[in-house]
Design brief:
Blueprint (H helix, E strand, L loop, with lengths): L7 H9 L4 E7 L9 E2 L7 E4 L3 E5 L10 E6 L4 E5 L13 E10 L6 E9 L2 E9 L4 E7 L5 E11 L5 E9 L6 E6 L2 E4 L13 E8 L7 E13 L5 H20 L1
Helix pairs in contact: 1-2
Amino acid sequence: MRRLYYTAALSAALCTLAPAVTVLTSATFESPSYALGNIAGQQGWSTDLRAGTAAVSSTRGYGGSAQSLNLTTPANDESWAWPTYSFDPATSSDRVLVSEVMIYADPSTASGQMGLDLYGGSTHISGAAIATDTGNLSILGIGPGGVVGFYSFSNGPHFNFGAWNKLALVIDYSSPEPTFIAYLNGSGISSDQLTLLSDDAVTDSDLFEYGGNPGTPAVNAYFDNYQVYTVRAVPEPATLGALSLGLLALVRRRRRG
């Protein structure tokens, strides 16, 4: 009989986050589910590209995996890649939406942004990004005076170039005014001073890049261990990490089994 073994991390996380964890979408970009080359059309993924590229690559993978998704975006350009899912906070019993991914940025990337960008159809929800010229974490929201933009937090956690980093965006819909926190390598930055662009139903958590100023090198990043899931309450950073490892181990086990 084929058996499925849960990791200790997953078991502990599920107990902590009882009664339910719902995985909306996930990808480790491994073969045979994903072939090398253009990601568009593979496993339901779509892209919005100008001069950039979005391709499954064997150049590097996180944690010993063989493949990842490589986005390259020239200066003054934009690139997105995403699968679709559906989460409506108005009808779901889960109150927290977690989007997360591992990111490796080439050290030559000197200007621009990369990260997660959430949408409900064509409606912008929120986002979290790395400013590649400084390594600062930025959050997309409505700031003072109702101004929409990426607000950089220079006193927060910093991105490590030439290494894998974990980026997560956690949106809590349990209060009338939803709140959200961005985590970089387990360290969180509260966005209490910002509000969501929209609290509509969410349909996609995009992987994206913004190219830098004209004349700067292209933004070149690798994305791996992408997943979006819901829980009943906001997880602590340590639990968030354990849950992520457990869920991904389960996904890998199912694919290899």
